Fold this sequence. Notes:
Layout: H1 2-27, H2 33-46, H3 51-64, H4 72-89, H5 97-113, H6 120-135, H7 137-147, H8 158-170, H9 172-175, H10 179-186, H11 196-225, H12 233-244, H13 254-264
Helix pairs in contact: 1-2, 1-3, 2-4, 3-4, 3-5, 4-6, 5-6, 5-7, 6-7, 6-8, 8-11, 11-13
Amino acid sequence: SFCTLLVCAFDKMRDVAEKAVATFIAAADDSNADVRDQVLQSFRIYAGKDLSGVVISIADWLLNHKPSSSPEKQREVLLKSLLEVLKAHVSVDTLPAATTEKVLKAALGDMLAVSELSSSWGQAATALFVHTCDLNPSAGMPMLIDAVPSSAGGTTPFYVLNALADFAAAAPLRMAPHLKELLKRLVPLLGTVKQENPRMLFSRALRGIGTAVIHLERFHNRERHADPAAGTEDAEAAEGDEDAATMPTEQLTPRSQACQYLRAS
């Protein structure tokens, strides 16, 4: 029947797509830098046809192959490819939360595996995590916070600090709902940071946190002084935030999430 033929056709298309992605992943280990660059571009183009398939396939490969048993350059190319794909094709609502969570786990796993401070592999993992965290902060921020030691005797992984600093600078409002838990972890560690690079990263992260607090205070003042009868923009925004109070957190704008955090605090 026509339906049977259609199912068979889709199955063949799926097989072709999976083989194409598998070929790209294997080619990411090529010793030729030009080939690796072409792989990155191929992923970006192919994702225009099968976005979820490309993202999930790369993330699954990274999660299923331990960093210690797979080539560093290959992982770096795949991390960069994911970032290019997300930047080119993904907005906040494009991918399911489960898919972005998978990407976050893959990126964080590589961040934790890198010990060299100037590693381009670690930098690629951090850049991917920060970008994906901006798409799904309700999943990304708890992962970062959990990676920070819960006691003063622990050592915070370098690229976790780097990601905190970068995310605080890039999206302070998205960090705002997680400030309380983050500060619980960071403050006890401040006196234990002796090396220059971690101290600089702590400073950057705290500066971003300070920016988030300033934004929160501004929103708080707007809400407090908004006059609904006056029909001002601030009043309309405040009313919008009141309406947002009953919405799931992941559906809120960064501004509404921040205001919701203020009320909860």
